[in-house]
Design goal:
Oligomer: single chain
Shape: globular
Number of strands: 6
Structural class: alpha+beta
Strand content: 35-45%
Strand order of the largest sheet: 4-5-3-6
Distance between the termini: 37 Å
Mean pLDDT: 84
Largest sheet: 4 strands, antiparallel
Radius of gyration: 14 Å
Length: 92
């Protein structure tokens, strides 16, 4: 069975589109990312945090979009990105 999910985190079921990820999206500027390994490291580290529903890393743009169940814990997200070896410079 193939995936019916689209890049915007919705699920296409025929004529209807149903959101599969509700939450608060916050975009952060992150320095030091250069490749796919960077994307994987940050995704793994931030995804492990409580309340994080989704992580999308734009290496070329230097942006990390985090979807959380409520208000994001900026300090925890910054620490997770730091632990992965990168620097969160603020909200984008």
């Amino acid at each position: 069975m193939g995936s019916c999910c689209t890049p915007d985190n919705s699920c296409s079921t025929g004529d209807a589109t149903v959101a599969i990820a509700e939450g608060t999206r916050t975009v952060y500027a992150v320095t030091g990312m250069t490749c796919g390994h960077c994307k994987t490291a940050i995704t793994k580290s931030v995804s492990a945090l409580d309340g994080v529903l989704n992580v999308d890393v734009d290496v070329a743009g230097g942006l990390v979009t985090v979807t959380t169940g409520g208000e994001p814990d900026d300090a925890a997200i910054a620490a997770a990105i730091d632990d992965a070896g990168y620097e969160l410079t603020g909200r984008a």
